[in-house]
Amino acid sequence: MDLSVNADWDETAADLDDIDAVTDDATVVSDAEEGIVTAFTDENRTHQLDLVHVGRTLDYNLWDDGVFSLDRRNEIVSEVIDEVFHLKNSVAKHRPDEEFAAIRERIARTTERIEKTAWQLNQYGSEKAAGYLRRWLPSIVTFAEQAVEGFEVPWTSNPVERLMGEVSKRCKNQWMRWTTEGLEAILQLRLVKYADPEHYQSFLDELLQRSTKTAMSCVLSIESTRGKL
Predict the structure, then answer these.
(1) What is the pTM of this model?
(2) Are residues 126 and 98 located together in one domain of the fold?
(3) Using CA atoms in the order 35, 37, 41, 43, what is the torsion angle rounded to 10 degrees?
(4) Is the pLDDT of residue 106 over 70?
(5) Containing domain of residue 122, as a range?
């Protein structure tokens, strides 16, 4: 992992490559920030667009184009989101049973419908929204294409974003001051907790030298003095 503030994405990617933190065939999951995609992807590394961001970004581009009314923008966004998450649900349903033909069919259908939507938007003059869909369509379906190849790729970066929020909360307590080593330690602990809960729990039990039992018993006595507890 890399710990930095306001660093250029190319610099961050280079630092991670130096320690072999990212494999050559990794899939990068992120929002539509060009800097991340450019820095971390190449002919071997692919990109998966966080599907949670699709509706938000499309809605903004539709608004920025200023072509459609609010109601029509909502309809367009809803149609695209429904199509995207239909693909997500199809992968979740068919991948465990290796029903790859069904996934391929859904990929083709999703691609066709989003391409058609982009064409229609362009015809109406909503060029930014159309360009957004065309630019990121390959990244929208990456996780499904990888599923056909037998790989599981997350369709959202939300778990990592929640993780970083948890780290941030711990770091921003009043009067707290952290060294780089301290922040890296917190980050590594949180990563292990999210990625391998059982390993994290065994580490915690060993560190605290406590039993792994989840229950304990005790005897409690209460004495009263002059009618007060």
Answers:
(1) 0.71
(2) yes
(3) -110
(4) yes
(5) 9-148
